[in-house]
TrEMBL record:
Organism whose genome encodes this protein: Pseudoduganella ginsengisoli
Keyword field: Amino-acid biosynthesis, Cytoplasm, NADP, Oxidoreductase, Proline biosynthesis
Stored Pfam families: F420_oxidored, P5CR_dimer
Domain Pyrroline-5-carboxylate reductase catalytic N-terminal: 2-86
Name of the molecule in the record: Pyrroline-5-carboxylate reductase
One cellular-component annotation, GO: cytoplasm
Binding site for NADP(+): 6-11, 67-70
Family: Belongs to the pyrroline-5-carboxylate reductase family.
Length: 277
């Protein structure tokens, strides 16, 4: 399978790390990005081919991954349009995978001259270590074979969750696309607290990291719902109770729910604003 990435930034690099040499040889992956330093690093680390602008290797690809910022997606599709037309004239309809937040498949299709084979996806950066999760939705012109190919690509870097209604991908974006940042934020807060309580930075890091990975794995492996696992840590009148009471009093859970909804609203807003182009 030949895969061309348009955009070789953070999320593309995380996907390439999971794909190159695993799902397909690095030499079958082509990356287009204007930054020579990023391209050099990707070529060195994963053996991918690279270019500063989209050209023949893009029209020869079976799959195009659109991995640029939503704000420049319209402009980038205009650069890709002749290359996709060339592929179609050669009798091929490459699968287009978009990973962009907000951008709706119908707008992408319109920008690409009515192009049909579009799967909209929302991956996340733990793909870098094969532990990503991707929400995906296929538009009606996607063949069963292309849907399988999309699933294989994203499953090479973690789990996939197919959704039937594209409007729900803003919720996926808010929960799991942006989600790693919330977890890192919480870890940062735990590390800060550890230091303020007199532990060294190294000790705080070790304790916070092990707690996160251990608790996450316990939540995955246990038959108990997370609420029950939480209760099992929380002795009445004890230390956890003191912390959770403080969090509830400060509205931490409500603030998190509101924040995640803000991310979903921003995804919707991006789609509406940028889709007007
Ligand atoms: N980061 C994340 O965790 C996630 C990101 N996404 C989505 O992935 C997409 C990329 O995000 P992210 O990787 O974070 O962003 P980055 O800015 O890290 O990567 C985008 C890359 O595209 C490059 N670029 C700009 N113009 C072009 C062009 N015409 N052709 C090819 N490449 C170009 C940029 O170069 P330059 O910097 O010079 O402009 C940059 O290197 C976004 O749409 C985002 O919504 C989805 C899920 C998670
Ligand atoms: O912050 C963003 O807009 C992108 C999409 C999900 C994660 N990063």
């Amino acid at each position: 399978m030949k895969i061309a990435f348009i955009g070789g930034g953070n999320m593309a690099a995380a996907l390439i790390a999971g794909l190159a040499g695993k799902l397909t040889a690095g030499a079958n992956i082509h990356v287009v990005d204007p930054n020579p330093a990023s391209l050099e690093k990707l070529a060195r680390d994963y053996g991918v081919t690279v270019a500063g602008a989209a050209g023949a290797p893009v029209s020869a690809a079976d799959v195009l991954v659109l991995a640029v910022k939503p704000q420049i997606m319209h402009e980038v599709t205009q650069q890709l349009l002749p290359l996709l037309q060339a592929a179609q004239q050669a009798g091929r309809t490459p699968l287009v995978l978009s990973i962009a937040a907000g951008i709706r498949a119908a707008d992408l299709s319109r920008w690409l001259g009515g192009y049909a084979a579009i799967v909209r996806t929302m991956p996340n950066t733990p793909a870098l270590i094969g532990m990503g999760v991707t929400g995906m939705v296929a538009s009606s012109g996607v063949t069963e074979q292309q849907r399988d190919a999309a699933d294989r690509i994203l499953r090479a870097v973690g789990d996939t969750v197919w959704i039937d209604d594209e409007s729900k991908i803003d919720a996926v974006t808010a929960v799991s696309g942006s989600g790693p940042a919330y977890v890192f934020y919480f870890i940062e807060a735990m590390q800060q607290a550890a230091e303020e309580l007199g532990l060294t930075a190294e000790q705080g890091k070790q304790l916070a990291m092990a707690t996160f990975t251990g608790a996450a794995q316990l939540a995955v492996q246990s038959a108990d719902p997370v609420g029950v696992l939480r209760e099992k840590v929380t002795s009445k009148g004890g230390t956890t109770y003191a912390a959770l009471t403080s969090m509830e009093a400060q509205g931490v859970k409500a603030a998190i729910v509101t924040a995640v909804k803000a991310a979903a609203a921003r995804g919707k807003e991006l789609g509406e604003q940028l889709g007007a182009a």
